[in-house]
Amino acid sequence: MSASLSDATWFKSSYSSAERDCVEVAFLREGSVSVRDSKNPAGPVLVFTPSVWDSFTGCIIEGGLDVAWA
User: Fold this and answer.
1) Pick from 11, 17, 32, 58: most CB atoms within 10 A?
2) How far is the C-alpha of 29 from the C-alpha of 5, rounded, in Å?
3) Dist CA 50 CA 55 (whole Å)
4) Could you tell me the pTM of the whole model?
């Protein structure tokens, strides 16, 4: 998938503090959703279709992901 990130407006969760690194999200004009590491903004970016993003966030909300936190 090819997405234009030139006009992306990145934001962090309201639960993030200014001192902590986390992921940033941008909702793109063509409808896709991008995610990047806040401590490496020039690094790689993941781009999701709207339906995949909805499925992912739905799993998080429902507690359906088995994630080991370091």
Assistant:
1) 32
2) 9
3) 9
4) 0.74
